[in-house]
Design goal:
Elements (H helix, E strand, L loop, with lengths): L1 E3 H4 E3 L5 E3 L3 E3 L2 E3 L16 H6 L2 E8 L2 E9 L2
Parallel strand pairs: 4-7
Antiparallel strand pairs: 1-6, 2-3, 4-5, 6-7
Length: 75
């Protein structure tokens, strides 16, 4: 399934990013309310830089948890 970045993550007022739902990236889980800054990778992925590139996310959804399996640029 393909989802826009903005359906999975939100940009917070302080400039950090937090997930809207539980998210798994490379085996690392982050839950809603857990903020990530630009220098803190999630499962080895710089999620902060992905949102700046306007990418869609390839995901698998199971029991309300979104597992990110890939990303690609919108053409």
């Amino acid at each position: 399934m393909i989802l826009p970045f903005s359906e999975v993550f939100q940009l917070d007022r302080d400039g950090s990013i937090s997930p809207k739902v539980p998210v798994v990236v490379n085996g690392k889980t982050v839950n809603p309310g857990e903020a990530m800054s630009h220098d803190v990778p999630l499962g080895g992925v710089d999620v902060y830089s992905i949102q700046k590139r306007d990418l869609d996310l390839e995901v698998e959804k199971t029991d309300g948890v979104v597992k990110v399996v890939g990303s690609f640029e919108i053409i």
